[in-house]
Each structure stands twice: as C-alpha cells, then as structure tokens.
Write a structure and sequence with these properties.
The chain is of the alpha+beta class. Helices cover 29% and strands 26% of the residues. Helix 3 packs across helix 13 and helix 7 runs antiparallel to helix 9. It is globular.
Length: 798
Amino acid sequence: MNPGTTRRTVLATAAALGAAAALPVSLGAGTAHAAAGDAAALRGRWHTLLTGGPALDLSDARIAAAVARIGRSATTAAKGLDPAAADGLFPDLTSTTLSNHVTTSFKRLATIATAWAVPGTPQYGDTALRDLLLGGIDWMLTNRYGPGHTRFDNDWDWEIGSALALNDATVLLYDTLGADRLDQVTTAVRHYTPDPNLWRADRQIATGANRVWISTVVAVNAVLRDDGASLARVRDALSDVEGSGANSVLAFNDASAAAQGTGEGFYSDGSFLQHYKHPYTGGYGKELLNNLSRLLNLLAGTAWTVTDPDLDNVRIWVDEGFDPLLARGDVLASVCGREIARPSKQGHASAQTVIEAVLRLIPGFPGETAERFTSLVKQWIAEDTYRDFLAVTDLASLVAARQVIGSAVPARGPLVAHKQHPRMDKAAHHRPSFALGISAYSSRIYNYESIQNENLHGWHLSDGMVLLHTDDLGHYSEDYWPTVDPTRLPGTTVIAGRPANAAGQRTTSTADWTGGTALPGTTLGAYGMDLRAYGSSLRALKSWFCLDDVIACVGSGITADAGTAETVVENRKLRDPAAALLVNGMAAPSGAGWSAQLDKVRWLHVAGTGGYVFPEPATLRGLREDRTATWREINLKYGTDTPVTRPYLTLWQDHGPAPSGAGYFWLQAPAASAERTRLWSAAPPVRLVARSGAVHAVRRCADGLLAANFWAAGSAQELRADGPASVLVRPEGKTVTVSLSDPTQLRTSVSVELAVRGLTLVSADRGVSAVRVPDGIRITADTAGRHGATLDLTLKRS
C-alpha cells in the first residue's frame, strides 16, 4: 500500500509499534501485528469488526446465541431477494423516489453477507447464497447505484448509508467478487463519496457525525482499492489538517463554531450539536463516536494512525457528554432528536451503540483512561436489567465485553451527579434511585427537529419537558413516543390543543435566558428558562431547583393572549395500569377513563413513580386513559400502521383561558414513598422565598441553602443580583460556597451581593473576585466568553 505523501503520513517505527500493541481486544492475534502497509491485513481488521474474527468459540453459549441471532437476521433479510426481478431487488423496496429503499437494500445484503461469513450460521459458506448475494450487488449497481444513476431524495443515503453497507458487504465477499465487480463497487462508492472533505449539495462541507461517516466510507473504500493516499486524507480530515481548522472533528467546537457557521460537533462542556443547533448526543453524536471508534481500530499501528493531540478530547466526550445522559441503559430522549420517533431506536438501542463504541476505544487509551472506560462499560452493562447487552450486541463487541467484564477493574457504581450542558440547553440530575432530565431551548438552540417526515408530534419536547427515569427501565420504550399525549409532556407549560403536524419545522426562541448553575461535587443545581412558545403568544418563567432528592418546580408570569394554558405535573406510562394514585392520602379511582378536578391538593403519590408536594394547595386535573396510536402517526418514513395501546396517568394544573401572570410551585420527590411524601407535605423540606418577574428563589430548610434564578436585577432575602444570573449559596459550618452563572450567555460580568457580615474570601475560580461592602460582601464574576458555565468561590465566616 502506498501511504501517500501528505504531511504526518509516516509514523516513526516505535510509534507505529506502540499503537499496534494497543489494538482493540476484538482483533485477532494475527491481525494485531500485521504490517502497517498490508491492505489484506486492514481488510482483515474490518472483517473482524463485522464478524468477531476467525477464532470464535462456538461452544460458548453466549457466542453460539449471537451466531444463531446473526443467522436468524439473515433469514429475515433474505426474504424476497430476487436478482432477476424487474422493479426492485426486494419486493418491498421498489421505490425510485425514496432513497432509504436503496440504503435498506444494501443493508439487507450486508446482513446476509455477515451470516455467510460467520462460521456456525446456517448460511456459512453457502455457494448458492454467495451467488445470490453477488447477483444482488450486480442488480443494485445496474439499476440503482453508481455513476449511471441520478440520486434522489436524501443525500445521506447516497453518500453515507448505502456506501457504508455496500462497503461492508464487499469486505465480507471480497475473495468471491472478482476484479471487475470489485472495480464496479469501489467506483460506484467513489462516485457519491470521493473524498472525506466532501462538499454537500448545500455547499457546506460535511461536519460532525456526517464527516466521520464519510471518512469511514472513504477509508474502507481505500482499503479495498489499496489506496494509501486516500487513507492519509481520511486521517487528516478528522483534524482538518489541510483546511482552516474550523471543521476538525476532534477539536472542541467552542472556538470554531463562529468561524464554521454551523456549531456542529462536541463542546468542552460535553454538549453535542448537529444540524446547526440541535442537541443530538443520543443520535448523531453516538454515531460519530461509533464510527470514529471503528476508524481508530482500522488505522491503529499503521502509517495512518491518528496522532492529533485533540484525540484526547474523546475522553471528555465520554465522561462529560455521554455518561451524564445515560440512565440505566437509556439515553435521555431530549438529546436524541428525531430518532425518538423511530421504532428501531427504542428499547435502549441507542445506549447499546455508545457501549460498543467505548469498548472499541479502551485499547487506544491505555492507563487511567482505559481503566475508567472499563469501569464505565461494566457499570452500563450491569445496571441495564431491561436490555441484556450481551444478548443483543455484535460478535466483536460481545468478545470485547466479555473480556472487560472479566477484568479486575471494578464497575464505577451508579452515577450520582448534577450535570448541565449550557451549550445545548439541557440538564441531567442523577441520584441513586432515579435520574431526571430537563429539556429547554433558547435563542441559541432549536426546540426540536422534524425533517424527512419524522418526529411529527415533537412540538413541546423543549418547552420545559422533564423526563423521570425510575426503576421502570422500559418506561420510555415499549411504544411511549407514539402513544404519549404529545400536547401534555411532563414538566411543560403549553397552550392546550393539538397543533398541525410538524414536518420541516425547527425554530429558536426569542429569549436568551436558559441555563443555570451547579454546585461542584454535589447533586445541587438551579436551572431555568424564559419560555416563549413557538406558534402562540404563551410566555412563562420556569425554574427547577434540583436539591438532591427533591426538585422544586417554580413558575411565574404565565401569560397568553388566547387559549387555555396548562402546566403538566406528570404524564406517566403506567407499568401497572391500576397503579395507585393517592390524593391527600385518599386513593383515586384506578380504572381507565377516570378524570376529575382535584381541589386543594397538598400532596400526591403515584405508585412506582414518586411523590408531589404542593406547599400552596393547588387545583389539578387528573386523567387515566388507554391511549392507542401507530408509529406512522409520528413517522411517515419508518413508522408502521399497527395500532398500539398503552395506559397513562396525566396530572396537570389548568391556568385558565388567556391567563395573565399565573404561576405554580410544587416539590417533586422521585421514587419517594407515600409515607415520606405525606411527611414532607406536613413539613416541606424546601420553601419558596421569591417568585416574581425578577427572581425565583427557594431555601432548603435543613441547611439554609439558597437557590435563585434572577431574570433581571432583584433580590431574594439576603441575596441581590445586578441582572440576569443563576446563583446557589450553600452554608456549611463556617464555610459558604457560592456558585453562579450567566444563563443568557451575553453578559460580560455578573455581580451579586450577599448580605452576610464577616465573610472573607478563601478561594475562587479565575475571573471571580469578592470585596466587602457595608452589609456583607459583593461577588463579581467575569462571564465573558464563558457560555453559561458555572463559576465558584468559597467564603469563610470570621
């Protein structure tokens, strides 16, 4: 193989050997030490990633089950396959206007080819099936894909989806293709995807996940053609070595977003954006990580090893980006974009992709990072008792996972943390018994994505949606998204009624205030948003004060010119359709069809979910219903017409028609028992100290912690702010810790005054200072360019 002559082409021998020693555990022993320029060895690496390698122990029950699974998938995929057909290779994939029919055809061929190549399957080495596969590839090249065919519909299918699957099938069938057919295949792929620096039809160079997908296509095609120069371009494209640096996949996007103009990629706070301003860690982000891990496997120990120092950022992607967004095997839906509307992406499928990617990364990050990744993977696999990772993953990942599980490194343990992602307007709160995600948007971030006729009911996904993950691990699986009432998502404030389907819609808010502050090393955080609803005149100020096991929910200024405004306390798909609802200690009817107005509510408890305390007795509406829907209602592209029915309990506060200045206040106690909820209703652990157009603030009774969101200059008891800010003040003995941020991400500085005498500065983050004033201390923080990040200081009482 000729490695090409662009800079950083050839590594020193020692570096190459070192990287080869760190090859993924899924690679076979012979492959791991292959010569760096051997095209056959690189094909072997990719073949191993697809099949698990030649040394599988078929007597191992787990391996045997995986092999059987591959065989069954191939049997299903092969139904109707007919290379002699006129209209389509498969009878259900005949469209010449829907490009996903082309991609799906190639994916089925790759699925069948995998079974043909894996020892132990019924299809292994079958000559008739081989000829059928070769005929299928010929049919696609003759009738659908290649230089003689005009693309239609979605560019992704032509440049990425079809090319990835065809590459895989070609690697698996390589020895049977013949030179002419191989040339046809590689030429067809290069026709649509000639270079990793591919300019798209909209004249934007591919970025983020699309860039890594395209790089993967080019890399495998280069291996098939023995083209070292193209592999060098792939390596350099990940870093944008030949460009301006604005399109680097590995560099954090913080500084490059303005120059790049898209904002796509990972940020240093763990955020990930794709399609300009959409939070997409659980969609495109997981695919970027997945394909990058495969590329690193392919290139490790060769003349094209990725040596960019920014590769080290991948550690932060995992630790700060993915880990806080996983909840016992599920990825928080608020960062999965339109994928929540795909039936294939439920059942913890997205988390499986993340685990597989991190498994592949472990050998490339030796030492402390490898141990931490190992402990993470062990935890992620063990805590997901809903989906057995070892029973669903691919063979190569199964082999790697078994080695990781058998290692001496202990599992990390449940995540206990409060994490905010200011660059994508999302927050996650993890306690030992639950996880909770908050979804918002602003002038910087889109509210939701609905393109390609997907996610048609996503109207309120960022209107303050609160997703609670408990021990009901299948709650957001098993047809949640088509059956949930999308006009009453939990936590949201909305105008009642059903908007038109949302195809093609995306928008930012006219408000800048979304974000909050988090006290480091604790599960304490303040979060909020200035909600300015899309499609109506609704306005609301919403806060969530996450104080360990209690979340204080505060709303004010709920105003609309028309329509009835509602704030949804809960909307739960019930594991037990008759799950008990207690209202002030009295059981409400448990049958479907029950609805009622609930007056003077002081506390509620939903069995299997938790408690809700209303320090200000509230009037609520309650509804139990069996909801029937189809996936096609929310996804015309991938949805089916089969009706599904699920039981729900919905609780909401009705603010009335055309409200002016309405509000709410309740405490959510996830996973709390009925008895604890009752006790907290008698003596609330958190009290409201301010709720106005200037500030929301609460105080925790046990230790005096004060949490405040300032929408404008104002005061909350001993705390004053000179403008928009989010602040936490935590007294602990003689120490007072203060955390603050600028959620608007527009201010150059934030100043707050704490009217407590005798405080002196102990330590502070860079850019934070404190001076004494007559009645206390003034804290000033330089927030320019901090993008909503929390700044901290510690004070001591004299």
